[in-house]
Amino acid sequence: MANRGPSYGLSREVQEKIEQKYDVELENKLVDWIIIQSGEKIEHPPPGRQNFQKWLMDGTLLCKLINSLHPKGKEPIPKISESKMAFKQMEQISQFLKAAEIYGVRTTDIFQTVDLWEGKDMAAVQRTLMSLGSLAVTKDDGCYRGDPSWFHRKAQQNRRGFSEEQLRRGQNVIGLQMGSNKGASQSGMTGYGMPRQIM
C-alpha cells in the first residue's frame, strides 16, 4: 500500500462513500470461489477488506483464477511470477485485467490496478470478480468450478428470423415511437404566409 497520510474534507467523504460499497458477504463468496476455482490448497484469508486486498495484491491468485477458466494449454497467462517486487506484482494484476477483458468482462466492469494495489476501491475489484464469475457460469464450457448459484447468468442473445414477406409488411407499419397518423388531415389549415388571426 502507498505511504499516504489521512485524507480530509471532500477527499475523505469520497473515500468513505467508496468504502461503503464494499460487501463483506460478497467477499466470503468470492474467496470461496477463488479457492475452489484455482484448484489448489490456498489458505483462506481472515475476513475484512484489508485482508482481502493483501490476499489478492500480488496478482498470483488472480492470474491462477483467469487461467483456470480456460482449457489446459490455452491459458492466457503462461508464466505466473511469485516475485515480491512491486512492479512485477502490478504487472501481474495488469495481465489479469487484460485477460479478463479478452475473456469478455466489459471495460466498465474492470477495476484499475491501483484500486487493488493501493486498496483505493475494493468494491470495484469485487465488481470485476463478480462479472468474471457471471461470464464463466454463462459460458458453461466446463471450466467453471463452484456453485453456479453464486453468480447470475448473463442474458443470451435471442435472434429472430423474419421471412421476406414479414419484412415487406413491416415497412408499411408506422411504429408508435413515431406517433400516430389516426385522424390526421389538413382540414382547417391555412396557407403559409397568412397572418394569425388574434381576436
TrEMBL record:
One biological-process term from Gene Ontology?
Answer: actin filament organization
Return the InterPro entries for the record. Answer: Calponin-like (IPR050606), Calponin_repeat (IPR000557), CH_dom (IPR001715), CH_dom_sf (IPR036872), SM22_calponin (IPR003096)
Calponin-homology (CH) domain residues:
24-136
Q: Which GO terms describe its cellular component?
A: actin cytoskeleton; nucleus; synapse
Which regions are flagged for Polar residues bias?
A: 178-189
* Record-given protein name: Transgelin
Recorded GO MF terms = actin filament binding
Q: Which UniProt keywords apply?
A: Phosphoprotein
Q: Where is this region: Disordered?
A: 176-199
Q: Would the keyword Ion transport turn up in this protein's UniProt record?
A: no
Give the Pfam families listed for this entry.
Calponin (PF00402), CH (PF00307)
Which Gene3D superfamilies does the protein's record reference?
A: Calponin-like domain
Q: Which domain of life is it from?
A: Eukaryota
- Note whether Phosphoprotein occurs among the keywords: yes
